[in-house]
Amino acid sequence: MSDENTPQEPPAPRPADAGAPGPQPGPTAPAMTGRQRLAAGLWPPRVTRAQLIVALLLFVLGLGLAIQVRSNSDSSALRGARQEDLVRILDELDGRTERLEDEKQRLEDQRKELENSSDQAEEARKQTVEKERQLGILAGTVAAEGPGITLTVSDPKHLVESDMLLDAIQELRAAGAEAIQVNGVRVVAGTYFSDEDGGVGVDGKKITQPYEFKVIGRPQDLEPALNIPGGVIQTLEKEQATAEVVRSTKIVVDALRAAKQPDYARSSSS
Amino acid sequence: MIAVLGLVVGVVVGLLVRPEVPAVVEPYLPIAVVAALDAVFGGLRAMLDGIFVDKVFVVSFLSNVVVAALIVFLGDKLGVGAQLSTGVVVVLGIRIFSNAAAIRRHVFRA
Questions:
Q1: How would you classify residue A51: left for phi > 0, otherwise alpha for psi between -120 and 50, otherwise beta?
Q2: pTM for this predicted structure
Q3: A23: which of A41, A252, B2, B31 lies 20 to 30 Å off by Cα?
Q4: Are the Cβ atoms of A62 and B47 closer than 8 angstroms?
Q5: Could you give the ipTM of this predicted complex?
Q6: Chain B interface, mutation test: which of A51, A63, A72, most B Cβ atoms within 10 Å?
Q7: What residue segments make up the domains of chain A, in order of their start?
Q8: Any CB–CB contact under 8 A between A25 and chain B?
Q9: Which ranges form a coiled coil (chain B) (predicted)?
Q10: Is residue B98 part of a domain?
Q11: What does the alpha-carbon distance between residue B110 and residue B103 come to, in Å, rounded to a whole number?
């Protein structure tokens, strides 16, 4: 706001005018001094020097008013704020930013930690599942399939005894058999053979000839192991049994056995 | 009538053109506007009283604006700018109210 008009200073009779905010009651007023003057100033419009000067000043006023209203409404309260206030606000914002930054850092660390630990847990779980499958094959709790051989022993005269079958099992194990079942009975670490009338007992379950061994392992190792001179097959043939070995690329060992919790043995590793 | 037009044109121009106010003047603008409003109400009252003189109006308008800005400026320099501008606004507000009361008596006879 500054000077806009200077040199006019006429005697100015009384032209009577100014910015009336709202001339609603004015122009139609009956004969009253104040109202009459107002009406006279408003209508008819006369171009006098006084009118022009006042118009100029009011123009400046309106300009300032509009600018101020505008700047107040469009750019928050900061625009009119004083320097010390601004400095204080800036300080507060800085402090707040710092605190939020710290918090963000902390939360990110926490997140990283949690992600790591969940990754580790997931990895451990996967390894556990894998191990369980491997151990399950050994313990006979899950089915297994893979290349291997089928050994069929026919013993029409019932001369084959349990120790011969046990020998066969031992031979197969020595040759690298990984999963074995005999006539639907899974052979595991604790399997035992016993002689029964007219057959053989495997883990207390009686089976009769023909004995069919399903063996998963490397066929090239398993078959020769059975065929070695003086080995399993020759021994069986001495007892007038016939043994037949068939290689296969896919043997399914699907006889299962319930997992058994040991009563006395405990894991000694923690 | 022309004076009213001047006010309207000023508002419209201010809204449309959106002029940049120099940063130095900015803190004084609101106070200056209030001071000018006081001068305008005083002028209106004088007109209704039949004692309006345009020279007096011009001088009072400008001096009001300048003095108001000066007080705020001084307050800023002394570190009590906020309080002083509040004081100026209060005083000018009182004057505006008393002038408005006089105008009201003229216009509404009440």
A1: alpha
A2: 0.44
A3: B31
A4: no
A5: 0.83
A6: A63
A7: 8-80, 81-139, 143-253
A8: yes
A9: none
A10: yes
A11: 10
